[in-house]
Write a structure and sequence with these properties.
This protein is α/β, with parallel strands linked by helices. The chain has helices at residues 5-15, 22-39, 50-68, 88-94, 107-119, 152-162, 179-184, and strands spanning 76-80, 99-104, 125-129, 143-146, 168-173, 187-193, 198-206. It has a domain at 63-206: Vaccinia Virus protein VP39 (Rossmann fold, 3-Layer(aba) Sandwich), CATH 3.40.50.150. It is 41% helix and 20% strand. The mean pLDDT is 94.
Length: 208
């Protein structure tokens, strides 16, 4: 599958309505293969096959970009619990106009994310090895995303208390999303990740 990986990524993204050009798919392929290589020695994203990693990490991160496009041009984003750099490094490759702070409390994960940011020349990325509670408050309108660090309700509550007016929060859930959170969200984006057909409900919350 590795030889056809860029094409697989392009096709999977197209099914999500996200356009990935050849240069981007090549870079995303290289990123994923590098993460998987390290993952064989050090737990970064948990045990998974290449096909599962494409779906669970790359395509899931690309799907979340659909909400970034709905934030009225918000350029500053913080990725809490970035792990192997998902979605932060994926967004940086796809959207060089974004200013991204990637945060992870596990030093080896933060170090890997920083190495990849340097290796890929992602000057729009800063990596901070830290817990959420210890990072400095943002100046100005900022967006936040976290894929798996907290339960959705706790994540949204923490992020709302942290951000200033004009900020935005992205949260992701499975198909059976909490109805109360869905009702509260500014944007509800439902999609399926291929090839498994895994359901995702991604939510965008605006901070008043």
């Amino acid at each position: 599958m590795s030889e056809a990986l860029p094409k697989t990524i392009e096709q999977g993204a197209a099914q999500l309505g996200v356009v990935v050009d050849h240069d981007q798919s090549e870079r995303l392929s290289q990123l994923l293969m590098s993460v998987l290589k390290v993952n064989n020695r050090i737990n970064i994203i948990g045990p998974c096959s290449l096909e599962q990693a494409v779906e669970r990490h790359l395509l899931d991160s690309l799907g979340l970009l659909r909400l970034v496009d709905r934030t009225q041009g918000l350029k500053s984003w913080i990725d809490i619990g970035t792990g192997g750099g998902f979605p932060g490094l994926v967004w940086a490759i796809m959207r060089p106009d974004l200013d991204l702070l990637l945060v992870d409390s596990v030093g080896k994960k933060a170090a890997l994310a920083r190495k990849h940011a340097i290796d890929f020349g992602l000057t729009n990325v800063t990596v901070l090895p830290s817990r959420f509670e210890q990072i400095p408050s943002p100046v100005g309108a900022t967006g936040m995303v976290s894929r798996a660090t907290f339960a959705p309700a706790e994540w949204i509550s923490r992020a709302k208390a942290f951000l200033t007016s004009g900020g935005a929060i992205v949260a992701t859930m499975g198909g059976n999303a909490d109805p109360a959170l869905v009702e509260e969200a500014s944007v509800v984006d439902r999609l399926k990740l291929m090839p498994s057909g895994l359901d995702r409900t991604n939510l965008l919350f605006e901070v008043a």
